[in-house]
């Protein structure tokens, strides 16, 4: 049973998430050989200020200069 967790900045619409989940499911069925009913896609929305890379929040000036 494929399980896919998608972590994104918060703010994506339900429609966008539905389209992303559909594309992932289709790829798992077509390429992975599984069934649609077996696929699970879970979205985790993270606030930008809670997403940190290299010790600096993603939205900070330091992160933007990378």
- Second-tier CATH architecture: 2-Layer Sandwich
The tally of strands reads 4
Q: What is the straight-line distance between the termini?
A: 38 Å
The major beta sheet can be summarized as: 2 strands, parallel
Low-confidence segments, given as residue ranges, are none
Nearest-integer average pLDDT: 90
Helix fraction?
25-40%
Instruction: Write down the secondary-structure element order.
Output: EHEEEH
Question: Can you tell me about this structure?
Answer:
This protein has a single domain, classed as Macrophage Migration Inhibitory Factor (2-Layer Sandwich), CATH 3.30.429.10. The model has no long low-confidence stretch (mean pLDDT 90). The strands form two sheets. It has a two-stranded parallel sheet. 2% of the residues are buried. It is α+β, with helices and mostly antiparallel strands. α1 (14-30) links the parallel β1 and β2 (40-46). Helices cover 32% and strands 27% of the residues. The N and C termini lie far apart (38 Å). Pfam families: Tautomerase. Residues 2-55 form the 4-oxalocrotonate tautomerase-like domain. GO terms for molecular function: isomerase activity.
Entry keywords:
two-stranded antiparallel ribbon; alpha+beta; Macrophage Migration Inhibitory Factor; 66 residues; 27% strand; isomerase activity
Furnish the topology, listing elements before pairings.
Layout: E1 3-9, H1 14-30, E2 40-46, E3 52-53, E4 56-57, H2 61-64
């Amino acid at each position: 049973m494929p399980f896919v967790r998608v972590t994104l900045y918060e703010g994506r619409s339900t429609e966008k998430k539905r389209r992303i989940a559909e594309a992932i499911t289709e790829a798992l069925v077509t390429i992975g050989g599984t069934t649609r009913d077996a696929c699970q896609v879970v979205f985790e929305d993270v606030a930008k200020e809670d997403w940190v890379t290299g010790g600096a929040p993603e939205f900070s000036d330091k992160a933007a200069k990378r």
